[in-house]
C-alpha cells in the first residue's frame, strides 16, 4: 500500500466518523431542548449505539497500521501532516477505551442529564447524587484508561479531551497569577462603583417573544447565518450541532432581558467560530476547533470584550429601547453601558461579570480535581461548593439550585472542561487587543453594528487555522505571545478602573 493510499484511507474513515459524530451532536441538542423527559432511556440507547459505532471505526486495529504507513512514507503537505497528527491523537484517545465503557457512559450521562433537569429547580441534590456517582465513576475509569495511554495524570487525560496538550500544572500557574491580582482589583472596583451614582434600573417585565426577536436581531448583526443554524431554549445555554448546522440555545427571564441577550451573544461567538472553521477540512480532525480554550475565547471575545464595550452599546441601546418600548434616561447608552459593566459577586457563573467570573471557574476546577482524585465525596460536594464560594467571592449559596446544581457539565460527564472557560477569557483579551491594533475600523464598526472588520481578522487569525497548530502557537502567531494573564489584567483595569 502506498503512503498516499494509506492517508486517503484514513481521510475516508474520518469523514465517515464525522458524519456519525454530527448525528450524535444533533441528538444531544434535541435531548436538551425538545425531547420528552420520558424518552431518556430510548435516547440513551440511540446515542450508545452510535457512540459504539464511532468508537469501532476509530479504534479498529487497521487504523494503527494506516497511521504507521502514512507516517513512515511522508510526502504530505503541512495541512495533511497536521491532520495526520490529529488523527493519531484521536486514535490514542479511542483505543484507550472499550466499547462497553463508551456504551455505559452514553447511557449514564443521558440518564443523569435528564435527572438533573428535574432536580435542579427542586433543589434536590439527594435524588441526583446516585446518577452523578455512576457518571463520576465512569469518568474516573475513562480518565485512568486514557492516562495510561498518554502517560499523564488522570485529570490531565480528561483535560486533554477538551484542551489538547493542556496540563493542570500550566493551569495552576495561570490561576495563581490571576489570584495574585484579582482579589485586590475586585475590591478596588467595588469601592469605585460605590463612590459613583448607581445606574438607573430598566423596568420590566420584558416579554420572552420580544427578547427572542432582539436576540435574533443581534445575531444577524454579528453575522450568524440562519440558513445553517437556529436559536432555541434549554435549561443551560449551549452551542451544539455541526459547523453547517449550528444549534444555539438560551434561557429567558422576563425580569432581566440582559441575561438572555448576553447568553445569546456568548453562544453566537461559539457559533461563528464553528461556522468559520476551514471548509476544505470540514470532516477531518485538523478542520475542527483547536480546543475549548480557543472556543471559549471566541464566545467571551464577542460577549465580554466586544459587546460590553461602549462602541457596541452605542449601537445596541436604541434597539433595546425599541424592542421593549422603553422610555426615559434609563435607556440611554451611557446608563445601559453602566448596567452592563456592574461588578457584583453573584451565585450564577453564566451571569457573572468578567471580574468575578474567573473565581467561579477556579472553584469548579479545584472541586472537580478533588472529585476525580477521590479526595472529595459527592456527599460533601454541596458543602464544599458553598465554602468555596464563601472564600472566593464572600457569598454563600442559599440553595443547591444556585450552588452545585447550577451547571450541567458534571452531570453530562464533562469533567476537565471548566478551566478552559478562564483560559478562554485570557485568550479573548489577547486576541481582541491584537485585533484592535491590527485594524482601526473594528471599534467604529461595532458602533454601527458592523462586525465585518472584527470577523475578517478573526477568520484569518483564528477560525481558518482550525487545529493546524496548538493553542499557544496559534496565539503567538496572532498576538505575539502565548497564553497569559497580562492582557486580561490590562483589560480589566482599563474598563473598570480607568474609564
Offer a concise description of the structure.
With 499 residues, the chain is mainly alpha-helical. Helix content is 66%, strand content 3%. A 3-stranded mixed sheet has the order 1-3-2, sandwiched between helices.
Word description of this protein:
66% of the residues lie in helices and 3% in strands. The chain contains 20 helices and 3 strands. It has helices at residues 3-33, 40-59, 61-73, 78-95, 99-122, 125-150, 154-162, 168-194, 208-222, 257-276, 292-306, 310-323, 333-340, 357-373, 381-393, 419-438, 442-447, 452-461, 471-479, 486-498; strands at residues 229-233, 239-242, 245-250. Strands 1-3-2 form a 3-stranded mixed beta sheet, sandwiched between helices. Strand 2 (239-242) and strand 3 (245-250) form a beta hairpin. Helix 1 packs across helix 3, helix 11 crosses helix 16 (419-438) and helix 14 runs antiparallel to helix 15 (381-393). The protein is globular, with a radius of gyration of 23 Å. The protein starts with a helix and ends with a helix. The mean pLDDT is 96.
List keywords for this structure.
499 residues, 3 strands, 3-stranded mixed β-sheet, 66% helix, mainly alpha
